[in-house]
Structures are given as C-alpha cells and as structure tokens.
TrEMBL record:
PANTHER family: GLUCOSYL-3-PHOSPHOGLYCERATE SYNTHASE (PTHR48090:SF10), UNDECAPRENYL-PHOSPHATE 4-DEOXY-4-FORMAMIDO-L-ARABINOSE TRANSFERASE-RELATED (PTHR48090). This is Glycosyltransferase 2-like domain-containing protein. It holds the Pfam family Glycos_transf_2. GO terms for molecular function: glycosyltransferase activity. Its cofactor is Mg(2+). It comes from the Bacteria. Belongs to the glycosyltransferase 2 family. The keyword Magnesium applies. It comes from BD1-7 clade bacterium. Keywords: Glycosyltransferase, Magnesium, Transferase. Residues 4-163 form the Glycosyltransferase 2-like domain.
Amino acid sequence: MKISIVIRTFGDSPYLGDVLEALSYQALADHDIETLVVGNGSCADVAKTAEQYGARVYEIRQCRLQGGRALNLACNEATGDLLVFLSSHCIPSSEHWLQRLIDPLVDGTAVYSYGRQLGSKQSEYSQIQHLMQYFPAESEIPQSGCFCNNANAALKRSAWKEYRFDDSLEALEDIRLAKELLERREKVAYVAEAAIYRVDQPDFEECLTRYAREAYALETIMPSIHFTLVDFARYYSSSVVQDIRNAFQGRCLHNNLYQILSYRLAQYWGAYLGHRRHRNHSNRAKHSYFNPDKQHKIR
C-alpha cells in the first residue's frame, strides 16, 4: 500500500526541516511512502529543505494554500492509496505517529482519521487550552460528530475520489467532508495516539483572519449556526475567566494574562466578523433577488 504525505507550507515555513526530520524516523513496515511538499513558490528555502529530505515539491500558484481547492489539487498530484495531511507547523510526537494515524483506515474502521494536536513551548497559553478542548486525550474510533482537522489527518484515496473537498470553501473543508461522509454512513475516527506538536506562532491579525474565515465557512456548512455580538460577549468573557482561573491555579497568570486577553479576543471577534461577512453576503443576495425595484430574469 502506498502512502502520500501531503505537507502544506505557509510562507517561509521555518519548521519544515523539523517536520521532515520527524517523518524520516517513522516506524512503518510494508508501505511505500512519498512526501509531497505543497507551496506557492514564494520561498526558495522551502524547495531546498524539501529536496534535502527527498521530498517532492508541488507548487500551486493560482489559489490559496488553505481551503478545499488547494487540497484537491494536491490530492490529484499525489499517488498514494492513503492521503496523509500535515501542516508544516505540526511536528509528529513519536515514531509511531503515522502508523497510529492510518490504522483505522487500514483495518477498515474508518475512511477518514485525524490525530491529536498538542501545544508546544512556542504556543500561547489560551491556544494550548483551546487545543486541549478540541483534541482530548481519549480516542473515539469511530466518532459520532463531524469535527475534523486536516493539519493532522489521513483519508482513503477512494473516499476522496468519490466525495472530494469542497472547492468553494477557504476553511473547514475537513469538517465539510467529514459531515458528508457521516451522512453517507461512512466512518470518521479521532486517534489521540497520533499526536503532533503545533509550533506555529500566529500573531493577533493572523488569528483574527483565521477565525473569521472559519466562521464564514461554518455558516456555509451549517446555516443554522449564527454568531452575534451577544455571543461574542458571552463566549469571550467566559473563556477569559476560565483561562485566568486555570493560569492562576497553575501559578503562571502573570506571564500569560496579556496572551489570554489577546488570543481570545482574536478568536471570538474573528468569529463575529466571519458571521457578519456571511450575513452581509446573504443580505446582498436577498436584496438582489427580492428587490421590487429591479427587473429579474429567471434562468
């Protein structure tokens, strides 16, 4: 069985070498492995690092590296029976990471799996709390919900060819696909033992943009979900209070108070901005269609 590891890079990707080094130590027998580093050609160091580890470089210049369309292009370029997705800021935690991640796919328990994400010494305090909430220590194989994350995931090629990622989404293409798979009675697995360390250090603007993009995508995937100013106030205040309480109990509040306030503001204000963008788009479409002062042609 052939495995394609697809690594999406973002900017200069300073930890790409660490990711590829960790992949070189994976204990996996009876499998042919190819590594495909996906970039936009903006950084020569990415190609140089990839070549040092024998990885193949695939450049996507015509679209964002986030989102469904870029992943579909990368999957089409890959040749493996199993497609493994890894972000360039996610370093496998052990030599058994890959085996654990693909086990549910190999034994037929699931067609789509994703692993645990752990914070690192580079992570902000609230980011670590956030990861602990969404990526618990216990596996769920198969799982009941549609949450999934392509920063550390594996998918059967046959499932991708049948369903594919949503080209229209610039975020949460993983959750959209997991939702569709569950609706078609396929299985998704969460494998806590297949853990990675996140070493990215997003600034406030990057976090804000990310959460706004995800909120916009979430309303497209699940139209019944809305995020209002009241929701912003509620979730921001409750998460800040909880983080402050935990940091105080851990005797690290003094060093992390600003990070807590900043990260949670980016998270929930970004969610509100994404909702507002979706609502404005919906209102424009509604006005365009129902406005009695305009003539419409139904095609």
